Predict the structure.
Amino acid sequence: MSSSKGKIITVVGSGLIGRSWAMVFLSGGYRVQIYDNQAGQAARALLDVRKQLEELQEAGMLRGDLSATQQLALLSSHDDLPQALEGAFFVQECVFEQLEAKQEVFRAVESHVGEGVVLSSSTSCLLPSNVFSQVQNQKRCIISHPVNPPYYVKLVELVPHPETLPAVMDATYTLMSEVGQAPVRLRKEIDGFALNRVQYAIIAESWRLVKDGVISVKDIDLVMSEGLGMRYAFIGPMETMHLNAPEGLQDYLQRYSQGMRRVLEAFGPVPDFSGEAASQINKEMCQLIPSDHEHLSVRRERRDQLLMGLASLKK
């Protein structure tokens, strides 16, 4: 905790991801200055963070060594960007997923911070070379892509700009580890990064199986939640292969590689996620969980509560 004492992180954008990042950094004892260009929005975000931290403390799920009151004492809101950036060594951008908006943020931020300040974006799919294309010093730029909600799901993908210095990757990796996240390093930029490329592959095949009448929406979700997801919560696909054959990965490949290739070659084209199939799948999904605000809010709260419990188990 002593290494973070007094150090300042600026969070630009006070929406869901911005508030979650603020909570993560507070849990590590960092001072957090949260900024939003909509007057009063950052102040309203503080009220939400306060409510969440107090609820987490009451449930015994508060992260870090500090109480909710101590963490909240480290948090401030700002409507003025230069003021919000004052003293920061790390800037985490969390504005909406629109390239021009992010480029505009980093143009403004760069004009108010020193050369040693790390500029980090929360984008989930925009390439660093595009996000930071208008930044003069691209060597200190990096993508820190969290998984929603980052307070409960700890993975962070660190994706470098082609010019990013190794020291910036190392410093960001260290920061994310210190605040309790689980950072992974991508060695170079790629469209969709790693998480979404894997996620989209699962979504595409799930969509095809439902569209082709092989399985229902409810049951394909059970394939993941009660099947693959049970072990993927603790080990990944590579270790799964390694453990699923008596003599490890090489043995697994000798046993199953021919079958894997046969199935993979039978996959259909990438779905367009529109038209009649989309209407039918949406109808089936909404029969299970209606898409009105009340039902979705209840399910999201359930998701977060279960993730809290899973995070506790994984400790």
